[in-house]
Design brief:
Layout: H1 33-59, E1 69-71, E2 78-82, E3 87-92, E4 98-102, E5 112-113, E6 123-128, E7 133-140, E8 145-149, H2 154-199
Antiparallel strand pairs: 1-8, 2-7, 3-6, 3-8, 4-7, 5-6
Length: 249
């Protein structure tokens, strides 16, 4: 079987055009793309962190001591004007406080017991309002009882999660912004140096100092030329021929 010759095949080790060095644009200048992406990504992460923290503060319940209302601990009903769809709690040093709550429609609400609370006095019971209006509240206990917005609520949990989530975004964004900005400045300076070297190619060349001037040396004597012929202005004397028929002297 006759082998077929294959022409125009790349030789060994030839895989196509040479690859451009990393970090260099097509024009040969240092690229600013990656530093810009890192910086912009850091700024975006910082904005996300700020937005998360602001939202966490906005949805966090405002539990203020001046908003607390004292409840009769002997079981007498107290009429209170409460907000719509809001978590409330009963605070007392007595862990065995018992309370009943009726919404404006006269429906008894579920009053739950808390596992723990770090406030002083601690929150021992909690419930969630339905509609805004006047609620009837009756409690019994051995210590003073107050009602206020709850320290333990879905809003508090959501706010805490958002605040905690904003922390890694803040750290990553701050780190990326600082590193990207420094990287971008350094890359711009390098790019400027390359452009200047192209505009002024001799600007970066090494200047070789000229040798020191020495005392003038006398010119070398001319070497006489050896050749044939007569020297200029040379007089040649030749004897005159003897007269006709005569002999020379």
């Amino acid at each position: 079987m006759q082998a077929m010759a294959v022409w125009n095949q790349p030789g060994p080790g030839v895989n196509g055009p040479p690859q451009r060095p990393r970090g260099v644009d097509a024009d040969g200048l240092p690229s600013l793309t990656v530093p810009r992406v890192v910086t912009i990504g850091g700024v975006a992460a910082l904005l996300v962190a700020v937005a998360l923290f602001a939202a966490a503060v906005a949805i966090a319940p405002r539990v203020l001591e001046e908003d607390a209302v004292a409840i009769d601990q002997g079981g007498r009903s107290t009429a209170l004007s409460l907000l719509e769809d809001t978590e409330y709690g009963f605070f007392s040093a007595d862990a065995n406080v018992a309370c009943k709550v009726f919404d404006p429609a006269g429906t008894a609400l579920d009053v739950y017991t808390l596992d723990h609370d770090n406030s002083d006095p601690p929150q021992v019971l909690g419930f969630r309002s339905t509609n805004a209006g006047t609620y009837d509240v009756a409690c019994t206990g051995t210590s003073a009882i107050t009602i206020n917005q709850s320290n333990v609520s879905p809003e508090w949990s959501r706010s805490l999660r958002m605040a905690v989530t904003s922390i890694p975004f803040c750290v990553a964004g701050l780190t990326s912004t600082v590193v990207g900005a420094i990287w971008l400045v350094a890359r711009r300076r390098r790019r400027t140096r390359v452009m200047m070297s192209r505009l002024y190619p001799l600007a970066g060349a090494t200047v070789v100092p000229a040798p020191p001037m020495s005392a003038p040396q006398p010119a070398p004597a001319a070497t006489p030329t050896v050749g044939y012929g007569l020297a200029p202005q040379q007089v040649v004397y030749r004897p005159l021929p003897p007269p006709d028929g005569g002999q020379g002297v």
